[in-house]
Amino acid sequence: MGAPRFPDHIFRAYDIRGTIDDLSNELVTKIGRALGAHLRYKNQYQVVVGYDARTSSSGYARLIRQAFVDSGLTVIDIGRVTTPICYFAAAQHDGNAVMVTASHNPANENGLKWLVQHQSPTPDNIEGIKQCVLDEHFIEGLGTIRSMSYNEHYLNLLQDDVILSQPFNISIDAMHGSAGEFAMAAFQAAGCEISSLHTEANGMFPNGAPDPSKAEHLQELSNDIVISNSQLGFAFDGDGDRVVVLDSQGNVVSPDHLITLFAKICLDSNPGSDIIFDVKCSRMVSSIVTQAGGRPVMVRTGNTFLRQALNDPEHQAVFAGEFSGHYFFKDHRGHGQDDGIYAALRLLEWLDNSGQTLEEALADLPQRVSTPDLYLPLDNIDAAELMSAFEIEAAQLSDAKISTIDGIRLDFDAGFGIIRPSNTGHFITARFDADTDENLRLIRATFARLLRSQDERLAQLILE
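Predicted structure:
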C-alpha cells in the first residue's frame, strides 16, 4: 500500500487535529463519511454536531453534517457551543456527538472530537477511521438534519445544580473562545459579580491561542483579579472543557490542589468511592484521597483514558481529574462531562458552604514545588529506544518505585518525576514534583543522570 493521500499526522491518539492547510474540504468530508460508517457499524442512527468559535469551524461543521446525511444518519445541528454542551446534548441522542474544535490551539488549526455511545475514541478507533478514509469504505444512505438548541437546557441544569448563598466577586477570561457567553450566563444566574475579559467569541483569537495552561496567557487575568478586588479568577480554554483557577492575589492554583479539593468534596457525600487521576499528578493526590477514605486510581494521561476509567463498572468512581485542567464530576450531580464552567461553580459552592476563602482551603493542603510540563525535542533520537534504555537504567535505583502505565514515572519518598513520549510530535514531555526545592533539584538531577547515557543534550534540558 502506498503512502496515505492525506497528512498522516492529523490522526492523533485521541482526536483529529491539524492546520487549515492540512484539512481540505475533501478530506474533512471523507473523515465525516468514515465517522458516519463507524456509527452505522455500531447500529447508531443519530448524532449531534456542534462547533467552536474558530472562523473555519462553521464551514467544517457543514461538511460533517452533510457527510452524515449521506451516510443515512439523523443529524442534530446545535450550532456554536462548548464541547461540554455538545456532549450534554449527546446524552439525549444515544451518546453520539462530533465537535469541530482544536480546543486550545491557535486560530489556524482545527479538528474533531467525538463520542460514540458516550465513549471517546481510542487510538485503535482513530486508526480505523484513518483506514476507512484511505479505503473509502463508506456506507450510503439518506439522512436528515434537525436544528436544535440545548443551550438553555444546559444553563438551567447548572442553575438548578449549584445554588450559592452569597454573591462572589470573580474575574473570568474566556480567551475569545466559545465558553464566554455561557460562562457569563451561568455565573450571573448564580449571583456572581463578574469582571470579564475576552468573553466575546472571536475565532481569530487576537490575544493569542486560547490556552490557559500557558502562564503568559494568564497575566491579564491575574492583573484584573487584583485591580477588581476579585475573590478568585477563572480562565477557560477555546472549547470550554478546561478551567484554570487563580486565587485573590492572581496566583495560579495547582491542578494537583484542585483535584485533591474536588476529590474531597465528592468523597464527603460518597465515602469509599474511587477517584481517578492521571500519571502526571502529584503523589499528594493519592495520599489525600486515601486519607479521605477514597480509593485512588491512577491512569494514563488523556481524556479518553479518564473517561473510560470513570465509566468502568469495575470502578465506583465519583470524580476524575487530569493535570491539564479537565475535571469530571460523577457524584450524582451535574452531567458527567469535563466542563470548566461546572467545575468553577462547584468550587464556588464549596467555598460558600465551608465559609473559607480559597487561600484558606489551600492552606490545609500540603504545599508542593513542581515544574510545568517540559517539552524536550528528540531530534534524531528514537523515542522507543530512549524509553527502553531509560527504564533499564532506572531499574537499578534502590530508592524509586517505577510505574510504566504511561511513559516512565519514578516515585521517591520526597516526590516524583515522569517522562513520556508525545502522541503529537517528535519529543518527550517531562514533569517533576517534590516537597522542597532541594528535593525537586535532586529528582531532576537523577533523571538527567539516567538520560545522560543516551543524550547529553536531553540531560541538560531536564536541568534547565
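Summary: The first strand starts at residue 16 and ends at 19.
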